[in-house]
Amino acid sequence: LSGGQQQRVFLARALAQDADVYFLDEPFAGVDAATEDIVLGVLRGLKERGKLLIVVHHDLLTVKRSF
Predict the structure, then answer these.
(1) Does the model's pTM come out above 0.85?
(2) Domain span at residue 27?
(3) pLDDT beneath 70, residues of the chain
(4) Would you tell me the crossing angle of helices 3-16 and 33-48 to the nearest 10 degrees?
(5) Residue 16: predicted pLDDT
(6) What is the CATH number of the domain that holds 55?
(7) What is residue 46's predicted lDDT score, i.e. its pLDDT?
(8) Contacts for 5 with CB less than 8 Å, ≥ 6 apart
(9) Can you tell me the distance from the alpha carbon of 26 to that of 39, in angstroms, rounded to the nearest whole number?
(10) Angstrom distances, CA of residue 65 to CA of 7, 10, 21, 27, 50
(11) Of the listed 26, 32, 37, 59, which one is catalytic?
């Protein structure tokens, strides 16, 4: 699997747990822009459902725009 595909598998595994808290370390590493938008949509959906998201991310432009 490519790096982006691995990231999507890791996210899918985490989502399958239906946890109340999600710890995500660089969830956008290795993914293309389209996949990043999809992942952001998923994260927003989790937030809207009352889930707590703790995300480590080092791209400050994306942080300002997305979080």
Answers:
(1) no
(2) 3-66
(3) none
(4) 10
(5) 96
(6) 3.40.50.300
(7) 95
(8) none
(9) 12
(10) 21, 24, 22, 15, 21
(11) 26
- The four Cα atoms 53, 45, 18, 30 give a dihedral, to 10 degrees, of -70
User: Both tokens of residue 62?
Assistant: 């994306």
Q: How many whole angstroms separate alpha carbon 30 and alpha carbon 5?
A: 8
- Cβ distance 53 to 24 under 8 Å? yes
What local confidence, expressed as pLDDT, does residue 41 receive?
93
**Confidence (pLDDT) at 4:** 82
pLDDT on residue 65: 78
Count of CB atoms situated within 10 Å of the CB of 4? 17
Q: Which two tokens stand for residue 44?
A: 């927003």
- Report how far apart, in Å, the C-alpha atoms of 3 and of each of 9, 15, 35, 49, 50 are: 10, 18, 12, 28, 29
Q: Into how many domains does the chain fold?
A: 1
36 is catalytic: no
